[in-house]
Amino acid sequence: xxxxxxxxxxxxxxxxxxxxxxxxxxxxxxxxxxxxxxxxxxxxxxxxxxxxxxxxxxxxxxxxxxxxxxxxxxxxxxxxxxxxxxxxxxxxxxxx
Length: 96
Hints:
Layout: H1 9-37, H2 48-52, H3 56-67, H4 80-95
């Protein structure tokens, strides 16, 4: 007599999860493949800090020393003035 496959809860759940992961991995691979064909995009190069200073070209031309000290905080995206303003507002609300 042939042996019948037994489907239990954990086995089915594992199968569904693995299939979903494989499907998402394949979709992500296709997404990356399409992005590579677009080449290097300037709006996606450099971090927020570099971008807020005007990009690498501005930094290379003037050098970081001529820009001076810039206030930054990893929790806040934006240039130095914006960071200072946000921190000041947060401190004022905290003091109240």
